[in-house]
Amino acid sequence: MNPADTAQAWGLRLGFAAVRALPARAAYRLFDRIADLSFRRGGGGVDRLRSNYAKVRPELTPAELEAMVREGLRSYMRYYCEAFRLVDRSQQELGEAVRVTGDGPMREALAAGTGVVIFVGHQANWDLAGAWSSTHLAPVTTVAERLEPEQVFRDFLEFRESLGMTILPLTGAGDPFVGLKKAIAQGDLVALVADRDLTHNGVEVDLCGHRARVAKGPAVLSVLTGAPLFTAALSYEDAPEMHSGKRVYISFSPPVPVPGEGTTRDKVQVMTQVCADYLGAGIVAHTEDWHMLQRVFVEDLDDRSTTASIPTGTAGAPS
Question: Cα separation of 197 and 280, whole Å?
């Protein structure tokens, strides 16, 4: 690893340790300030967030849009603050940090020994949701986008595994689909962050009134294995009793129906659109909690001028 990469890796480790050492309220205030600074400085990622928000909420005035972008960056930084402090939370604290609705059908499937697939977006804190699911539902397997430098990716990998999740690299370690099918066969939960196509082999759907390319992996896995597919919409909600003042709310959809006719491709297209519809409703309702600082809409995919300046390390779905 070159000196710059080494410095970046050590910087993240020191930041991780420092944030864990801070009192909770002080840590969240610090990350609010970081978000506000990012908002004032602007840049490619902020511009892309603004563009994405403008598409899904066209009724906002310019002033309302700017306020939404600021809150979106605060929500994004809250994710990082929570992620850095997540390894210190007990199972009880995890339970208090998450509220869930619509989980009955999924619990029934898991209790019967059937693995399930969850289509998740870049919303609120998907790592906290994954940690909660690992301790309150079933062992979680997911796929992670490989980051550069490699040591940063390894640190993120070890962090997520410390939360009880099994992480399969998207590239560089064989076909992740094999591991996902194994997890399903074991009756586990496969959660795939799929609202952005990382492989350029996804499917085009309508998302919040615009054409977008998303990962088809969740639907493909469901069709090929018979595992039921659900969509999870995540957001933050006020919780004054929490040190952070917020908790993560997870709303699970009903099982996504598998079409009775058509090719596998046709079934995957229809099922992915159902997932996008449910997720899109959540994005419109809680736009500030959608952390999409990258291109996702088709009309933007040829525009290489604005990309996120902060590596997300987000999980993805093989397509």
Answer: 16
DSSP reduced 3-state for 216: coil
| Residue in this structure with the two tokens 């993560």, named with its chain if needed | 248
Closest CA to 184 of 133, 138, 112, 115: 115
pTM of the predicted model, to two decimals? 0.88
The residue extents of the domains of the chain are: 3-300
Which pLDDT tens digit goes with each residue over 5-25?
Answer: 444 444 555 566 667 778 888
Q: How many angstroms separate the CA atoms of 279 and 13, rounded?
A: 33
Task: Please report, as a single letter, which amino acid is at residue 102.
Answer: G
Spatial distance between the Cα atoms of 157 and 146, rounded to a whole number of angstroms: 9
Nearest to 168 by CA among 194, 193, 199, 143: 143
Span between the terminal Cα atoms of the chain, in Å: 30
Give the full edge-to-edge strand order of the sheet including 116-120: 98-101, 246-252, 229-238, 116-120, 189-193, 140-144, 165-169
With a CB cutoff of 8 Å and minimum separation 6, the contacts of 42 are none
